[in-house]
UniProtKB/TrEMBL annotation:
<dbReference type="Pfam" id="PF13561">
    <property type="entry name" value="adh_short_C2"/>
</dbReference>
<protein>
    <submittedName>
        <fullName>SDR family oxidoreductase</fullName>
    </submittedName>
</protein>
<dbReference type="InterPro" id="IPR002347">
    <property type="entry name" value="SDR_fam"/>
</dbReference>
<dbReference type="InterPro" id="IPR036291">
    <property type="entry name" value="NAD(P)-bd_dom_sf"/>
</dbReference>
């Protein structure tokens, strides 16, 4: 675990990627942004 909360810019980077054409083959996924604090 990273031991810190995510910076808003880190979350925005993922959101921008998922909204881009580069993520066109990603669908129906749950992507946890938690710095490894919760791992299944």
């Amino acid at each position: 675990p990273q031991g810190r909360f995510a910076d808003p810019a880190e979350i925005a980077d993922l959101a921008l990627f998922l909204a881009s054409a580069r993520a066109r083959h990603i669908c129906g996924e749950v992507i946890n942004i938690n710095g490894g604090l919760h791992m299944d």
